[in-house]
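The instructor's notes for this session suggest beginning with a concrete chain rather than abstract definitions. Hand out the sequence below and ask the class to guess, before any prediction is shown, which regions might be ordered.
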Amino acid sequence: MTTQAQPIVTDRSYANELDLQAIADLINACELVDQLEQGASVEELQLRFADPDFDLAHDLRLWEDAQGSLIGSGWMWIPPATDVQDGYLGFKVHPQFRNRGIEVQILTWAEARMRSIALASQRPIHLRAGAREHQAERIALLEQQGFTINRYFYDMALPLSEPLPALQLPAGYGVRSLHSNEVEAWVELFNQSFIDHWNFHPVTLEQRQRWMSDPDYCADLDLVAVSPEGTLAAFCHGAISSKDNARTGRSEGWISGLGTRRGFRRIGLGRAMLLCGLAQLQAKGIETALLGVDSQNPSGALRLYESVGFRKRYTNITYCKVLVN
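After discussion, reveal the predicted structure:
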């Protein structure tokens, strides 16, 4: 990693929505160089920053050069604590200002943010960040700053040009869209489905309602499996980002969530729900289905996805720095 002279920069907190365009411009300038498919618009940032666990006053920081142009930004997502208080850091530095000290300033700010939380918490404090497997400079930066690898996630793709495997539901089960009066039941279903997964953080009713307020939310991609007794037993949530597809010129959709409640596993519901979700994407003219999976998922999700034809596109690496034991 080469080091250049440090520019004169100042950092500040978020002021108002006038900052959003500058943040979007920074993200898009980075995307032109990095090609991570991580573009942004003001509307998307408004939705992202509306997360109930996001504190605009404290979880977003901006770095500007001597002319007042935005050249770096860091943002934190700090979910409610479990047995550990996690903080997830995302950050961007303009390509013309990289490796000149701004990245270290962002990491220092993130550590200070988490240590301020530690003062009121009796839990271990973990700062987390990520990198793509090919981002050598970011990986070197994180490791030099004391972060260590603790998980690998695969981004996978499946062309939808061919017929899907035949769908087989367990006897007596049905699949349908989630009803508007079942949102709270869905939250309980989700949490019961993922409670035994690595680094689980419960979803709240408020978060689920926010997802449904997304302009791209589509009710017929929000599927549940219902047991013969009427219990919500499994779910598959699909998503199509109109803005992502407009940026890339491709026709892609996501399997953004797939889970089976405890007590209903090993009877084929996961595969059936996955195929239902893929069929819905296919019916909407989507050409490629995408998803992300924990490479060490204990439920065998990776094998399931590979069995229907998904193949890895790239690997995301999750890093962690323990700030307080």
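Then share the key points. The chain has nine helices and twelve strands. The mean pLDDT is 96.
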